[in-house]
Specification:
It contains 3 helices and 14 strands. With 159 residues, it is α+β, with helices and mostly antiparallel strands. Strands 1, 2, 5, 6 and 9 form a 5-stranded antiparallel beta sheet that branches. Strands 13-12-11-10-14 form a 5-stranded antiparallel beta sheet, with no helix packed on it. The longest helix is centred in the middle third of the chain and has 17 residues.
Amino acid sequence: MTWYALQHKPAQGDRALAHLQNQDIACFFPKITVEKIKAGKRTKKLEPLFPGYLFVNLEQTDPIWSKLRSTRGVIRVVSFANKPAPISDGVIQHIKDSLDSVAEQGGIKPGQAVQLNEGPFEGISAIFQAYDGEERAIVLISFMQKQQRVKVPVSAIKK
């Protein structure tokens, strides 16, 4: 069996996935957790890694091909010269492996030691406290034998 990409209708990836799985089609719809700031608060949301696309595993001779385009949520099979474009198993496996490593890494967590690499505090070790909006972060630095809370640009922080 070979993997192929399907384009789904906007915001209907989960719907297309459910209807394809109801037809006993092997599917892969990779998603990752993304941090976003909404109304000043940082939230985590699960989003597709490839917006607008999902993958199916089918044989070239499978009779289900005729039903793919009429499946709810599906727009088309990604094709070149009117032939579905195959995707190697190695590529799909690499995406699956990469998703696992991305999930393990995550972002900077409160209490984690960081290094400040720009600005007036360049070269100073700090302890990450929290994000302050999308552009800034709050860190603790040792200054004059006391822990001080300082707001710095997120770009100035290095793990």
